[in-house]
Amino acid sequence: MDWTEIKIEISAKDVDTASAIANMTVPYGIYIEDYSALEDEVLEIAHIDLIDEDLLAQDRDKAKIHIYIDPEDNVDEAVIFLREHLTAAGISHTIDRNDVKEDDWLNNWRKFFQPMKVGEKLLINPSWYEDTDPEGRAVLNIDPGLAFGTGKHETTRLCLELLEKYLKDGDRVLDVGCGSGILGIASVLLGASYAFGVDIDEMAVKTANENAAVNKADDKFVAVCGDLTEKVEGKYNIVVANIVADAIILLSESVSEFMNADSVYIVSGIIDVRADDVKEAVSDRFTIIEEKTDGGWYAFAMKLRQHRTIRGARLA
Questions:
Q1: Which domains are present in the chain?
Q2: Given this model, what pLDDT does residue 24 score?
Q3: What is the pTM of this model?
Q4: Hey, what long-range contacts does 301-307 have (CB within 8 A, 24 or more apart)?
């Protein structure tokens, strides 16, 4: 059966908020056309100034978000959701819909996904690029398939940068909402002894385990299907969750069960208008040790609050 493509056109300045809204409509990935910084991005990644004429002809003031809806899902409901939430956010937009063959849309977004440096140690490389120069970096070959997580989105990059900073050789890593497996697999490449991923979407889990095999990390990384931590056991030195604010707030109520006293808890997927909500919700359990922001998105690195008892009174 044909899938349905929903294409949203917006101002490039609204792409972060609009993409956050779009991600709420499907459990797998979306792709975004945003040419506002085309030349700078090509120079930074490819170190060349020769750009395809079709790309140069694109409108730099506009962005397009593409969403693909499973034949079994309700397309009308998705369109209504998008219109209501984009309007409520004050984002001027147009929405078009088309029927597409599954093979067409699975490959359509690939031309927008290029090799990308993250932090000081990683290079995110699309699995179909075979001749990328790693320039001394650890190469993470990734095929997101139907799962969220290419490294291009700000929330994923923020998590990777914090992982690079706080992860130590031999650490055990828990990735809640693992998507394509990018964070768990990156952890292994950065020195983790073991990484465990969990995601509510079966297709994401399949993609994550396939990506682990491609990166020869399947002996140290495994993903399973489950909701938040329902399938998780044991203790971890690093817990990372690149999800959404409400899920982070819920997760934070019980995630300490899987942490040691000195474990680091890294969260992202938090849009700027929800950052204070998350801070307030976690403040009684965690201390924020680092805050990073990029393009209207926030990520926090946290540690458990240490409590001590004196004559029966617990002091923070």
A1: 3-111 (3.30.70.120), 144-308 (3.40.50.150)
A2: 80
A3: 0.66
A4: 301/162, 301/165, 301/166, 301/264, 301/265, 301/266, 302/264, 302/265, 302/266, 302/267, 303/262, 303/263, 303/264, 303/265, 304/256, 304/259, 304/261, 304/263, 304/265, 306/261
